[in-house]
Design a protein that fits this description.
It is built from 19 helices and 21 strands. By secondary structure, it is an alpha+beta fold. The strands form 5 sheets. Strands 13, 14, 15, 16, 17 and 18 form a 6-stranded antiparallel beta sheet that branches. It has a 4-stranded mixed beta sheet with strand order 3-2-1-4, covered by helices on one side.
Length: 548
């Protein structure tokens, strides 16, 4: 079966998606699937690319260089800048190149039902939840309301539209929010993922609050009473202006291009153009907004407790089964910076609480997954409060797909390595697309063919390949890398063998694949497994047995 791996996209999470495309390519079981890479550019056009395209450390690095000296994304380049090297693929041509679209994209247009709807129109099956679950999963305001209806949870929230915020007395509005929600206040852009457009206002500081709100609307004010450094534009040196313009390119920290000058309607696509426009408008009030600015902002009370993230998968009867939850600790906020740019946050599976509370988390997550109309898989975040309440938020319908993403660590705990996990995702997605009643015969044929291949592999196991390693962290890391490469080759069944000394060795189970050091590995091998991990492994055995 040919699998089109879709990555990139117009959303602010495209760098996360770029890494996810690399993970999918590297770990797709080549004995079952043939990968075809489809880069979705910043203007939403589909382009066939070669594996070399994914070898750069970031998407920005792999795009054509810009003569201005600025590092930019393709929306800032001429519309035909990619044509010579990256041929465009029209949606009506999809079926001649692949049988199923593997979605490794995130955020608006990529995770909200837009790309899913386009694929359904062209009768192309895709991975992940369908239209209903995707539409719910992208809207944080709607999520809060539906989760409260599903499980009765109570969490203080408030929202405001952009127009209402502009008319409001900022100091009075901030005061009313603090009276309703208390401090700190969590400020969120409702349609972003990867913690982009999330800020925490910890003090009764109006400047900090207004800066957070502008950040989540994806706007900037260039005038003396603005809230960003751009307010002092006229006083900045040329190199400072250039630095600020470059920073605005950033998808996670800046409002990113294109932006519009709201007073004139002029659209700015390039940082060099931004400098020219702001210099020309010097002294005039100027408000910049992303062309994809949010029109509402969500405010939530700050929840104190143990933060967790819990994946959910399902079986052929659509029964949702929660994976072992991961606790995130040692971080004030699990924001974009903490997730992707530092090693501050620590993680453990399951949550450091009682067995009963871990079960409570799993039940709550599985219930919300089902009642919100999500299918195939998802990752749902939440908090366990000091009084043992489970408060959920932010169902993530296409979780991040780096090799060490939380969802893959949780699937390893029930026995699925990276290659197995991707195979599950493809097969279960086919199963769910069949339920839509569109192109049913062809989809059933694809599913039957894949099931026959999986059954044949069970009846005629691949030859075993042992990978041995010693007591150094480096040898452990190298062995794991080799393990994943062999598992994805589809030619052998790799087995990790830890040689502790001349007389002692251990076969390393799949659930230890994400241990990072020999010390952690030995603890996992020697300590009894947590009862929740044993329970969940047994409860999902009817799902995992197909792939192991």
């Amino acid at each position: 079966m040919k699998i089109g791996i879709f990555f990139g996209g117009p959303a602010r999470e495209r760098e996360v998606s770029f890494a996810g495309g690399r993970t999918a390519l590297a770990n797709l079981d080549k004995g079952l699937f043939e990968p075809v890479l489809v880069f979705v550019d910043g203007r939403g056009r589909f382009r066939l690319v070669k594996p070399e395209f994914l070898r750069s450390p970031s998407l920005r690095d792999t795009l054509p260089a810009d003569s201005s000296g600025f590092s930019v994304y393709d929306e800032s380049l001429s519309p035909d800048a990619l044509e010579a090297t990256l041929p465009e693929l029209r949606p009506e041509q999809f079926s001649s190149h692949f049988d199923l679209a593997f979605l490794a994209m995130h955020g608006p247009d990529c995770e909200d039902g837009a790309i899913q709807g386009l694929l359904e129109w062209y009768k192309m099956p895709y991975t992940g939840p369908g239209l209903v679950g995707s539409a719910v999963g992208i809207n944080k305001i709607l999520q809060n309301e539906l989760i409260a209806l599903a499980n009765g949870q109570q969490k203080k929230t408030a929202t405001i539209s952009r127009d209402a915020y502009e008319r409001a007395d900022k100091a009075q509005f901030f005061q009313s929010l603090t009276e309703h929600l208390g401090l700190p206040i969590v400020v969120k852009a409702p349609h972003q993922g990867s913690s982009i457009g999330v800020a925490i206002v910890r003090e009764a500081d109006l400047t900090q609050f207004c800066r957070a709100v502008e950040q989540c609307f994806f706007t900037m004010t260039v005038q003396p009473d603005g809230w960003s450094k751009l307010s002092a534009w006229g006083e900045l040196a040329a190199d400072e202006k250039r630095e600020l313009a470059q920073r605005m390119v950033s998808l996670d920290a800046g409002i990113s291009f294109p932006v519009v000058v709201e007073q004139t309607g002029q659209v700015i696509t390039h940082p060099a153009q931004l400098i020219e426009v702001l210099d020309e408008r010097q002294g005039q009030p100027t408000r910049l907004a992303s062309v994809n600015a949010e029109d509402e902002v969500l405010f939530e009370e700050f929840i104190r407790g143990q933060e967790f993230s819990c994946g959910v998968i399902q079986d052929d009867d659509q029964m949702a089964v929660a994976l072992p939850p991961t606790e995130i600790y040692n971080a004030e906020a699990f924001d974009f910076e903490t997730k992707y740019k530092t090693n501050v946050a620590k993680k453990r599976i399951p949550v450091g609480t009682s067995l009963e509370n871990n079960r409570k988390i799993q039940l709550a997550v599985a219930e919300v997954f089902t009642k919100l109309g999500i299918n195939v898989y998802s990752r749902i975040d939440g908090f366990l409060t000091p009084d043992n309440r489970v408060l959920l938020h932010d169902p993530n319908t296409i979780p991040g797909m780096s090799p060490t993403s939380l969802i893959f660590k949780q699937m390893a705990e029930i026995g699925l390595n990276l290659a197995n996990s991707l195979t599950y995702l493809i097969r279960q997605s086919l199963r769910e697309r069949i339920r839509t009643g569109k192109d049913t015969y062809r989809l059933k044929s694809l599913l039957a063919s894949l099931d026959a291949q999986l059954a044949d592999r069970k009846a005629n196991p691949l030859p075993e390949r042992v990978i041995s390693f010693g007591e150094s962290d480096e040898s452990f890391a190298n062995a794991k890398q080799q393990y994943h490469e062999l598992a994805a080759s589809g030619t052998v069944r790799p087995v990790l063998q830890y040689i502790k000394n001349k007389t002692e060795s251990h076969e390393v189970p799949v659930y230890c694949l994400f241990r990072e050091t020999i010390v952690e590995l030995e603890a996992a091998l020697n300590d009894p497994r947590h009862p929740l991990l044993i329970e969940t492994t047994e409860r999902t055995a009817h799902i995992t047995s197909r792939y192991i």
